[in-house]
Amino acid sequence: MELLFIYFNFIYDLIKDFYIIVILIYFLVLVIFYSGSLPGSPILSIASGFFFGFYIGYLINIFSILIGSFIFVFLAKYFFKKLFSNLYKKYSNKINLLLKNSTYEYLILLRIILGTPLFIQNLCLSFTNISKTKFFISSFIGFSPLMLLFSYIG
Length: 154
Known about the structure:
Blueprint: H1 2-17, H2 19-35, H3 41-52, H4 54-83, H5 85-99, H6 103-112, H7 118-125, H8 132-153
């Protein structure tokens, strides 16, 4: 237990001495983590609230998950189009017909529903033909309550 407090003190000293650099490194680590859609992201999101405070932690969390998810969706869409073009067209057309009338509502609901892994959410979004603006707006609205909660818990 004493070793844990030694690590926390070390991290706090780093944050105190190199505040901007530590924020940038943590932000980049989170972007890489979210672009892989790896499990365990709530722990890192709570940690950002713990180490950097509620407001800065929220900003780090929301922008890193937006950028990381966009990278994942962009890469998945590219690889699906190149490797499985027939299957991609078939499922993409079906999903886009469902989302045609109320894109924002469905995308916000997809992001706001708890329990659905980020990997599955991003994989589903890679089959859609939504604009970057719709992606960022719906993801920002959908992820905001959860990131606010994680920052507050931390």
